[in-house]
Amino acid sequence: MPVLVMKFGGTSVANLDRIRRAAKRVGVEVAKGYDVIVIVSAMAGETNKLVGYVEEISPLFDAREYDAVVSSGENVTAGLMALTLQEMGVPARSWQGWQVPVRTTDAHAAARIEEIPTDNINTKFAEGMRVAVVAGFQGIGPDGRITTLGRGGSDTTAVAFAAAFGAERCDIYTDVDGVYTTDPRICEKARKLDRIAFEEMLELASLGAKVLQTRSVEMAMRYHVKLRVLSSFEEQSDEAGTLVCDEEDVMESKPVAGVAYSRDEAKLTLLSVADRPGIAATIFTALSDAGVNVDMIVQNISEEGRTDMTFSCPVGEVARAEAALSEIKEKGALNYSELVVDRDVAKVSVVGIGMRSQSGVAAKMFKVLSDEGINIKVITTSEIKISVLIDRKYMELAVQALHDAFELDKAA
Amino acid sequence: MPVLVMKFGGTSVANLDRIRRAAKRVGVEVAKGYDVIVIVSAMAGETNKLVGYVEEISPLFDAREYDAVVSSGENVTAGLMALTLQEMGVPARSWQGWQVPVRTTDAHAAARIEEIPTDNINTKFAEGMRVAVVAGFQGIGPDGRITTLGRGGSDTTAVAFAAAFGAERCDIYTDVDGVYTTDPRICEKARKLDRIAFEEMLELASLGAKVLQTRSVEMAMRYHVKLRVLSSFEEQSDEAGTLVCDEEDVMESKPVAGVAYSRDEAKLTLLSVADRPGIAATIFTALSDAGVNVDMIVQNISEEGRTDMTFSCPVGEVARAEAALSEIKEKGALNYSELVVDRDVAKVSVVGIGMRSQSGVAAKMFKVLSDEGINIKVITTSEIKISVLIDRKYMELAVQALHDAFELDKAA
């Protein structure tokens, strides 16, 4: 029988009523003839509670013990979901990560899945079991200890199972009903997309559209897993939600699929840096070692052997960046005249695979912003994305103007 | 290094403060030079919450899923305890049942421990780890699924580890400070015992003194594990609590060690039963099949081929007993004139290994009750216990009078 993977996030299994509702959705797919693998998160709030315990005990905790503790929430949900399905008459059983086993690297609290043997679960499917309920977010490391995949890791678990079992589709049930052209809280004309390409979804996810964990999208793209995002709080048809799929399966032919933003950015500029080979490596290695997540990097034209270096990072990491840069300056590894910090910027991006083949997207974006009187502070581009840093106070205006200009409220 | 097992029940690990307090106790024993195996229960209330979920979903639940769900509470505490010890500078790590592995039978929700390999933990002790924190109450069955040992099973886990590792002692930390001569809520003269023999503890436990799970005492007796019950809420010396040990290690030489009671008993009498071989088997097989826990059984003298059969069971099981007996009567498998039920009785027992060698204990007990005007309805005796059924309203009086008469308030 064809296999379907269905993943339910924490709000979709927050209590027994919601688990029952999710189980009914599973029952519908079983009735259609699918063997279903259900991936569950912990009940909403449970993981935060457990993480809170660990952090209260030990700010610099042993990640192996952290994993042993925080993985327990998913185990509870898996058992409860299996029981609920059984009560509905659907043959089901639960698996914890180590029972499958979901083999991972030993990077505790941020492990990567290396292998999912299908024998155990397929044997049970062959014996008539219809639903395997698997605790998401967890696995077992080479040393036999429990690992977790990092927050949001259940999405990755779901995609990995879909890939391993050759599932027809991987449905991610969540508390939103799909992927939107932009954040509906900022732009009321935001429209739900029926389909979006993996590459676009990746850019949107990394830009703060927190619908899917980035790694799960990367994995789905690599293994050509059709990924559907849909709401567990609405009655669903086969066409509900948003399908994240290969580029060639996306019907829309607009240059831009969506507008993303990231509100709390800071722009840092090192003035008059000695421009010699290796200086960029010195700067960004020091920042990386200090745990600063550098995003955009721009190097201005060099004059007389000196250059200006601009980069952006989250506002919360500015202090760490300043300290790291002072330190390497004091050590003599870096020479600059001044560090200028602007804490009041935001990033706005337009994303679309269509811009590969259609020129003029960047020009149009800059003109739209200019027409609104919005000054662009930094620009970076990739094949399918153009991002700008602007004053934070213009962020909502920029998103709305770009959404209008690229006609994202209208289907293609 | 010598090994010590320390078990902390749910109230002793109910929150992070209490886990810290327990960890300090562990640290004291580590400082004395012990390698310590800590067995933890779930935080107070957690297991009840999880059992509640399971029962709400499915009154006739799949015990394998029940085990997968309810075992998670102990996993959380084990990780938190290991982290707390590490934070105190004590090298520690957690083990879940399947990681040791604690091999059990496949009787889910009521499994028995079959084997505890010591290699994994001993290897870590040899490498310098000082504390192995093990999730109690759980193991892994022959099919690789998680099992639990039944409520209170963490005591059994603790004793099993003490036996497997040849521990010097097994300390059970709980919310009472030891084993008393009787229930202090009923008899204010109740006195904490310094030592008690396994056999006496077993009789007291099965009679309702809920300090230790009966199976843990049986196992400790079989493997000669010195078991100490003590409070996790008081400063402790080496002599604190009550040591449950082999008979020859008990110093006290009184005939009676304690007075136990069981409040909610019922007495059922089948009048004029046809007295033929196999009739007792017919009756008690039917009752057992109906889930009635029969305790005392007395058969009165037979007259003209007919006899009266009296037995006791918990009041809550009377309805099931009546139904089962009616059914076999209707089937013609049993013939009796009447079933007389007395729902207002209680059982009071005196327990002591000393009564093996000292005569007159029964006579003294009956005289004490008679002097108080308490009528004895049924008597049963074993080598180290004499039990009587009496009207429930006299129960407290009987316990107090016996406690006085056998001078249990005074040390031997």
UniProtKB/TrEMBL annotation, chains A, B:
Biological process per Gene Ontology, one example term: threonine biosynthetic process
Domain of life: Bacteria
Keyword Amino-acid biosynthesis: yes
Annotated pathway: Amino-acid biosynthesis; L-lysine biosynthesis via DAP pathway; (S)-tetrahydrodipicolinate from L-aspartate: step 1/4; Amino-acid biosynthesis; L-threonine biosynthesis; L-threonine from L-aspartate: step 1/5; Amino-acid biosynthesis; L-methionine biosynthesis via de novo pathway; L-homoserine from L-aspartate: step 1/3
Entry keyword Amino-acid biosynthesis: yes
GO annotation, cellular component aspect: cytosol
EC number, as in UniProt: 2.7.2.4
Domain ACT: 268-343, 350-412
Catalysis: reaction(s): L-aspartate + ATP = 4-phospho-L-aspartate + ADP
Enzyme category, top tier: transferase
Residue sites binding substrate per the record: 47, 74
Keywords: Amino-acid biosynthesis, ATP-binding, Kinase, Lysine biosynthesis, Nucleotide-binding, Transferase
Pfam families in the record: AA_kinase, ACT, ACT_9
Binding site for ATP: 7-10, 174-175, 180, 185, 210-211
GO molecular function per UniProt: aspartate kinase activity; ATP binding
Residue ranges of the TM segments: none
InterPro entries: AceGlu_kinase-like_sf (IPR036393), ACT-like_dom_sf (IPR045865), ACT_Aspartokinase (IPR054352), ACT_dom (IPR002912), AKii-LysC-BS (IPR041740), Asp/Glu/Uridylate_kinase (IPR001048), Asp_kin_monofn (IPR005260), Asp_kinase (IPR001341)
Family membership noted in the UniProt record: Belongs to the aspartokinase family.
Protein name: Aspartokinase
Organism, as annotated: Jhaorihella thermophila
